[in-house]
Amino acid sequence: MPSEFELIARYFTRPTPRTVLGVGDDGAIVRVSPGMELVISTDMLVAGTHFLGNGQTPADPEDLGWKTLAVNVSDMAAMGAEPRWALLAVALPEATAAFEAWISAFARGLFDCAGSFGVELIGGDTTRGPLNLCPTIFGEVPQGQALLRSGASPGDEIWVSGTPGLAALGLAHLQGRCMLSEPALTDCLAALARPQPRVALGIALRGLASAAIDVSDGLLADLGHILERSAVAATVQFDRLPGAALAACADQALAQDCLLGGGDDYELVFTAAPGHHARIDALARELHLTLTAIGSIRPVGGETLNLEDAQGRAVPILRRGFDHFAGTP
Ligand code: ADP
Ligand code: MG
Description:
By secondary structure, the chain is an alpha+beta fold. It has helices spanning 4-11, 61-78, 97-116, 166-174, 184-193, 199-204, 219-230, 244-248, 252-261, 277-287, 320-326; strands at residues 36-42, 45-46, 82-92, 120-128, 132-142, 157-161, 209-214, 233-237, 268-272, 291-298, 305-308.
C-alpha cells in the first residue's frame, strides 16, 4: 500500500519548468509576470454530487481528471486570464491496488488537461476521506483587463460560443431520458466528458467584451448572473440560438431545456458593444469556433430576461433552466 507521499510522488508530481518551486516543499513559489495580475479560483467536485452517483458522469476516471481541471481552467477563460498554475486538494478513500489504478487514470486525465492549457500542478494536499477533488487555479491577466460579470451596458449585444446544450443532452442520454443517435451522440458525450474551456477566446476578448461568464449552470442562468452583476436586463432571440441541441434530439421540449438550462457546457457567454460585431465575427473564424449573437442588453424595467421568437413574441421558458434563473433578481 503506497504512503501518502508515494501517492503524491507517483501520480501528482510532474516537471514544472515555468515555476520557481513546485511540489515538495511547504509551499510553492511562482513569479508573476511583470504588469500582470493574478486571477484565482477554486471549484470543488464531490463524489455523489458532481460525479459517480446516480448515473452522474463522468464515471471514467480519466475523463473525470480532465474535467476536474477543465472546469477550473474555464473560470480563467471567463476572466480573460491565461491559466498558469494549479493546486490540487484531494481526499481519497483508500489506496488499494484497484483504487491506485483509478488514481493513475485520474491523474492521466488531469495532466492531459494541464498540458493542453499550459497549467503546471505546483502543490496540493492529500488526505484520506470520502472522495473529494478540489483544485485551485491561478491565472494571469494584464492589469485592469480581466473580464468581469459586471460590465454589461444597455445596447450591448449578447454572444455565446459553441453549441450550448450538448453536454446536458449527453447526460440525458446516459440517464435514459432520451435516445440520441450518431453523429450527435458522439458530440454530446464528448461535450459532457471532455469540456473544452474557451481560453483562447477569453484572452482574445480582453478589451472587446464588456462582460463575460462561463456556462456551468445553464445558458439563461449564467446570463442571469451577468444581468444581476451589471444591473441590466436582456432580450434573447430564441431563433438565433445555435440549434445543434435542437437538431440532436427528437424530444424538442427536452432539447430546449438542455439548450436554455443545461449546465456543464463551459462555453462563454459575453456581451460587447455592437461596434465590435465584425471583429467578433472575425475572431470566430480565427479561432475556428462558432460565436453567435443571441440578443441584446437593455436597461432594467419589466422582465429581467425576455426570450422572444423572430416575430418578437414571448417564448415560454419551459423548465429547469428558468427555475434556476428564477433564483436570481
Ligand atoms: P505539509 O506537510 O507541509 O502539509 P504535505 O505533506 O501536505 O505538506 O505535502 C507535501 C508536498 O506535496 C507539498 O509540496 C504539497 O504541495 C504537495 N502535494 C500534496 N498533495 C498533493 C496533490 N494532491 N497534488 C499535488 N501536490 C501535492
Ligand atoms: Mg508544511
